Amino acid sequence: MAEKCGSSSSSPNLICPLCLDIFVEATILTSCGHTFCRRCLKKYDLTHQDLDHMVCPLCREITKLSTSRVDDLRLNVSINGCVDDYHAKCGGMNAVLEMCQKCTTCKSLKDAVSFCRTCSCYMCDECLHCHQHLTMFFDGHEIVSMDDVTEGKVSIGHLFEKCSIHKQENKDMFCEDCKVHVCHKCVLVDHQYHKIKNQVNFEQELRQKVTDLAQRCADKKAELEKNIQNIEIQRHEVHTAVQTLLDDVRQAYSIKAKQLEENLRNLIEQINALERSFDDDLDVLKSKDRQRIKSICSSITLVDNDRLGHLETDTLSAHILLCEELDTMLKEVTDHTSVEAIKKKAQEKRFKPADNARLDLGSISEYTDHPSMAAIKKKAQEKRFKPADDTRLDLGSISGSDPKMEVIQCVDLREVMQGMARYSQSTVAIGYGYNAEGIDIIDSNGGKQQYRNTPFSDMECSDLVLQRDWTLCVSTCRTEAYIYSPLGSKKATIHVRNNGYYLSVNRSPSDEIIITNYGKQVYIYDPTGSTLKHTVQTKHRTGQASTTRTGLIVTSSCWGDPSVVTVYDRDGNAGESLQAPEDVYLYAALDEQDRVYVASVGEDNSSVVIRLYDLDGLNLKERVEFNALNMTLDRSWCYLVSLSPDMLAFACYKKLYFIKVSL
């Protein structure tokens, strides 16, 4: 079909490397200076919205982006000026947009009306007239109308550009070494020993590659759309399962609420019974005193008689006896203690709430200073709602099986491990010591391969980490670390001022580079390694460090003395350290949910105990102590890395272990 004016014959400096057309709003990437159409960069950026930078499609250099992303990149004024000049020479922008092909047979630059397949050139009216009448030269040439070409009725086939050096020769070959189109004379002169392909075959290969990619894109799109539909189908199942859990919880609450109400009624009845009992006891005491009053009154009535002067013989004896009885009665001590005892007994009655593990409100008992021991809570066994039994003051729990760890794979390393980094959710990158010939990528099935873009083969690797864009940071000595692009070219060198032991490197969730060297500092560099952003002072020598999503720093002194794990903020404030017993060393790993795993390794190397901690401010709160893992350890230098919420990697000397975590 017809070409845009100058899209193939114009200067290569005006062609966008992405759309292969003349620049529209040529925009420059500040890090490397490469220029692209602004709309092309926006399309390219759509697939990298999770990054705060743009990787150049040509050289892989990183350009930082603001919140406005591509819109804040500056225009390439020089290129845009050249584009405007070129459009003016070709008849303006409208000529380009209307795809007006000019005559290539003469120099008139008139619009082409036909195309000669034999000459492979466009012709204006005058050139067509010559072609048709100069039969001595053009007899038998195949000529087609431009209207038929633009309407797609006929095809003009493949067109070759003319060689700028050998003017009459077509650039019908492609040099793969130089990646340029050449004619056969250029091949003989300048590309004699290069790998040469036929231009048509080269284009067919590229077209086939693009066709395959387009088909794979269509297949992947269909697969993802189908998966989206399946997600919505499964969403209903998920909601049904969650609703079932909710119904179970509500039913358990209803049952236990009734039990608590019954318990309340029983306690009220007990209290009322106590009140009646105390009232009965007080009534008895009251009745006794009233009876004594009655007896005293009766006795005094008999004794106090107007005829006392006439008493003799039997009457006097009776009177004396009555007086003695009354005297004895009056000498009896009034019972103040019984009522005090009843009052004290009532006051000593206490309501003793049931502990939180019992499904009742409590009991009424005598006062005591000694609290009862709480009942032991049972652990939920399966991932479902399990109602609590009737002795527990809760409805139940949603949980999985008992937390545990198990080694699912043990891999023999080819050399002594120096550093380890997460490569994927089931894969690690292992760095070795001096002359170890590169970096190994090892998966949880035991598969091994070498990192294909290893930038060195004879340099010591103390530690390594991969950033999200696959930039590699490697420490190779006590004072320097190097940053390499995904293609293996060196981008930067980090110089650490304070000399220490081997540098340990890590990265933050935002790709900051974290460096420690067994000194009392943690160094935090920007993702490019060019700027030291923070230096955090630590209380102990620090061998390894990692950062949370909120910026907290979890440090391990590893085989330092003492071996501790401490959490710091960026101002150097520290929480309470976890300190290991003598001859035990601690190695910490932070997972993507900001949970902290700490491995305790004894100097006798008999076993490894791993504990899981939750962050509580700057302190670590133990959540689970897992079963001890039996591993073959030859040294105290170890490395612990979290690959996913349910997978850890643990390396020591020439052994690598993949550990499955079940919470």
Description:
The protein has 663 residues and is of the alpha+beta class. It folds into 3 domains: 148 residues, Herpes Virus-1 (2-Layer Sandwich); 141 residues; 259 residues, TolB, C-terminal domain (Neuraminidase), CATH 2.120.10. 28% of the residues lie in helices and 27% in strands. The protein contains 10 helices and 38 strands. The strands form 12 sheets. It has a 4-stranded antiparallel beta sheet, with no helix packed on it. A 4-stranded antiparallel beta sheet has the order 16-17-18-19, with no helix packed on it. Helix 8 packs antiparallel against helix 9 and helix 8 runs antiparallel to helix 10. The two termini are 64 Å apart. The N terminus is likely disordered.
Summarize the structure.
The chain is α+β, with helices and mostly antiparallel strands and 663 residues long.
Question: What topology does this entry show?
Answer:
Layout: E1 26-28, E2 35-37, H1 38-46, E3 53-55, E4 62-64, H2 77-89, H3 93-97, E5 114-116, E6 121-123, H4 125-133, H5 135-138, E7 143-145, H6 146-150, E8 173-175, E9 180-182, H7 184-190, E10 196-198, H8 199-303, H9 313-331, H10 337-348, E11 349-353, E12 362-366, E13 384-387, E14 396-399, E15 404-412, E16 417-424, E17 427-432, E18 440-443, E19 448-450, E20 463-466, E21 472-475, E22 480-484, E23 490-495, E24 504-507, E25 513-516, E26 521-525, E27 532-537, E28 544-547, E29 553-556, E30 564-568, E31 578-579, E32 584-590, E33 596-602, E34 608-616, E35 619-625, E36 638-644, E37 647-652, E38 655-662
Antiparallel strand pairs: 1-2, 3-4, 5-6, 5-7, 8-9, 8-10, 11-12, 13-14, 15-38, 16-17, 17-18, 18-19, 20-21, 21-22, 22-23, 24-25, 25-26, 26-27, 28-29, 29-30, 30-31, 32-33, 33-34, 34-35, 36-37, 37-38
Helix pairs in contact: 8-9, 8-10
